[in-house]
Specification:
single chain, alpha/beta, five-stranded parallel sheet, 4 helices, globular
């Protein structure tokens, strides 16, 4: 878990990245900004391979990794990402993905298209620090 932030609350660090060469750039930036705006520390990994994404998770010592747009063959690729993280000794990072509905490997959370970044952030905080989801403001 990350060090407490300036307000004393624990900071959640998240890597957000895209796989392949599709049009995920807008969704990746939108998710990264949205999570940042909720107070999370975000590392934007850009477009990379599964191996580079796993390396970034290790190097940045993050709490979670997310793909804002599911790649082709999402179950296979996300299972591979989880295996790559395990190979690197990482067993405490939450993996999540957004995009078209898919059967995902165990322990990986799926968010449907249009899910607000605040909802993703609330779920991450619940998983990582046991914080209950925040109610939307007025």
């Amino acid at each position: 878990m990350s060090a407490p932030g300036a307000t004393g609350e624990e900071r959640v660090r998240v890597v957000v990245g895209a796989l392949g060469d599709g049009g995920e750039d807008h969704a990746t930036v939108a998710l990264a900004r949205g999570l940042r705006d909720t107070g999370m520390e975000v590392v934007h990994a850009g477009r990379s391979s599964l191996e580079r994404l796993a390396d970034t998770v290790v190097q940045e010592d993050v709490d979670a990794v997310g793909l804002p747009v599911l790649p082709a063959d999402p179950a296979e690729r996300l299972a591979r990402l989880a295996a790559l993280l395990a190979d690197r000794g990482v067993d405490d990072v939450v993996v999540f993905a957004c995009g078209a509905d898919a059967e995902l490997p165990g322990g990986i959370r799926f968010f449907p298209p249009g899910t607000a970044p605040a909802e993703v952030a609330g779920w991450l905080r619940g998983q990582l620090i046991g914080e209950p989801p925040r109610s939307p403001g007025p």
